[in-house]
Fold this protein.
Amino acid sequence: MTTATETTIATKTEHQIPGALLQKKVQVTVVGCGGTGSAIAAGLPYLHQAMVALGHPHGMSVTLVDGDRISRTNCVRQPFSESEIGLHKATVLATRINLFWGLGWKGVPHFVNESWGQDTDILIGCVDSRAARNAMTRTQTYWNCHYWLDLGNNADSGQFVLGQPENQRNKARDLRLPTAPELFPELINTKLDKKDRLPPCSALEALERQEPFVNQTLAYQALAMLARLFRYGRLSYHGGFVNLRTGRTTSLAVDPVLWQRMRTQPADSELPRRKRRKVVRQ
């Protein structure tokens, strides 16, 4: 039997969802429709259906944003066909989802810049560079949202972090979830993009440089976390790290002490930060 003291201690390490998100139609914006973004987009209808079935009054409405067009190489690791080469990824995915599920979700074929602004509750970033992630943090959309879920990966590992930007909605919260760049500043350090950015490659090279299913693994871990948040209204973790080479998945606990330790960890530490420098590609 749990005592009152034990309940109090447990509550301190749990994040509570803002009550408004359990009453309204949740506006979700996915930025980036490549390997990880397309996997997120494919999973969101299931989350929407689950929310409604479990009693949420409206579920969610989703906007997919990406100015990129489908290339032949994309057809190897991403859910696109050769008949779609040249079309915008965001439009193709939104149309496909709407036809299959009978939804009215939107596809916006534009890249995000600092002037971009859209009313959203949950911003999901699946971008492939630090510059794109940096630009997202300066948009009005970012500074108005409840949550920013950031996902990034390299060849065989990656991370997903659910944070609350320190904006008018969130800055007064007692247990505000730090965003990915607050914990790992290198994720928005644009100078590092020059070292990590890969040139265009063939289909074979694309597979050799990135393990199959790393994008889907990250996406579904993140979606499962969101499902728990809406089903139970709370979380004891707000992200995680996945390594397909070792088969290990490590959660990121809701723990202010841990957050402080991660923020003060030197960049050349032997702890996980060293590997996280390169966890940025989709």
Remarks:
- Residues 233 and 254 are 14 Å apart (CA to CA).
- Residues 19-276 form a domain with the Rossmann fold fold (CATH 3.40.50.720).
